[in-house]
Amino acid sequence: EAATGTGARVVHYDASLEQRLTQRATVAADLHRGLAAGEFHLLYQPIVELPQGRIVGVESLVRWSRADGSIVSPADFIPVAEDTGLIVELGAWILDTACAQAAEWRRLHGPDALRSIAVNVSARQLLDPCLPDLVAAALARHGVPAAQLTIEITETAVFAGGRALATVNALSRLGVSIALDDFGTGHSSLGLLRTCPVDAIKVDKSFVDGLNGTPQQEAIAIALTGIAQSMGLRTVAEGVETEAQARRLTELGYRHAQGFHFARPMPPAAIDDLLRAEDPVAA
Ligand code: C2E
Ligand code: MG
Ligand code: MG
Ligand code: MG
């Protein structure tokens, strides 16, 4: 475009690029400082069993609350953390914090109160050959069995580099569950089910949004859970926002769901309340 465009367009392009780069550098420096200053915390969103909506697991979701009181969305800082490599340090903190929390819930509510605690792992982390050791160490440090941890990866991440698939295989050998996040939005979702040791798929919100729409829109949601079931995989429907969607998912044979209709991401104490409400016998 620069070659065919006018001088003015080239200048405009350069200016916005420079601005973007400056912003990135600022965010990167701030991320580093924020990590040292303890400005990050994890929220946990319930994953529930349909149709009753009983909590069976949680997904950890990172938040950055800065000194000025603003909360930064992971969509804004995870990409920068990835580009700068800071995701390795941040990711290690996330894994350790989630495992510590899992251990705390085991103590408070018994070892079976939550079937799984899920942690998101991004493309750059999958390229780190130390990741499986890091996961094993976090589990051991807090006495959490591997089977209780789910690592959420995306198809895009697995395709990012040759080493990513080897890392996923090593993680799977540890005994943690592997969930394919945002399933159906990548390039080769179905092919990946053959080559990657997947235990669960998380059907992307875009398909849930198509429920109760046209038969064509529903067809994909139906097909995805059919394939998952015939392969012995767990299916979680993401981004369920309405009662009608939850009902339709149940009719279509979905067993697990996550979304604002059931619960928003919440601090650990709120998960405690949910677990206590469901098991009044527990202390
Ligand atoms: P994700 O892993 O697909 O997480 C689900 C996102 O959907 C979360 O956004 C969650 O708050 C949101 N969500 C859940 N239910 C609903 C719903 O019913 N409606 C709508 N509109 N949204 C819903 P969040 O927390 O902003 O995270 C965004 C993304 O950032 C995540 O997508 C994940 O890719 C990434 N991320 C979050 N935490 C981490 C982390 O600890 N490590 C890494 N590497 N990535 C993370
Ligand atoms: Mg996820
Ligand atoms: Mg997801
Ligand atoms: Mg998603």
From TrEMBL:
The keyword Magnesium does not apply. The keyword Transmembrane helix applies. Residues 24-279 form the EAL domain. Keywords: Membrane, Transmembrane, Transmembrane helix. It comes from the Bacteria. GO terms for molecular function: cyclic-guanylate-specific phosphodiesterase activity. This is Diguanylate cyclase (GGDEF) domain-containing protein. It comes from Actinoplanes regularis.
